[in-house]
Sequence to fold (178 residues):
Amino acid sequence: MTNIGILGAGRVGTHLARALASAGHHVTLGRRENGDVAGTPPRDGTGIHYADQRSAARTASVVINATPGNSSLARLTALRTELAGKILIDVSNATEDDADGLPGDLCYPGGSLAEQLQEALPGTSVVKTLNTMLFTVMTDPGSLGGITTARATEAMVLVVPHVLRRSGPAPFAVSLTR
Fold:
């Protein structure tokens, strides 16, 4: 059983908390507000404890960043002491929303939130993962199929040499169109 702190109590954080608690882990869901929620025992039958984000980070051995990516750097930098020596799993996307509420621009063009976090938190091991899928898939990977679906994502690396041979070592991205 791992002691996991999740920073962010929105859809992503809550979904991950439920799945990890169901798997037998001790989960503390860290919310922005503090004081009255710190140390609150589970009250909804999920086994999830509630605390402020500082307490959730301090008491966990593994911390998941599920805060909004456009404010994650400031929030987590303020927790430098609590995150020191820990593994920080960053599942957020640092984007600015368009008028329709969907991501419209990157906060760190030419870089990433994970890089910014690693630079700001040198005593923390930052791991970036799960940010390319909907939160429902994060906790139910079987909904995309079995482990054999990894063949497709791993095979995407075979595109790289062809692009490099044609266009040189310039950065590029692959997009999906319908």
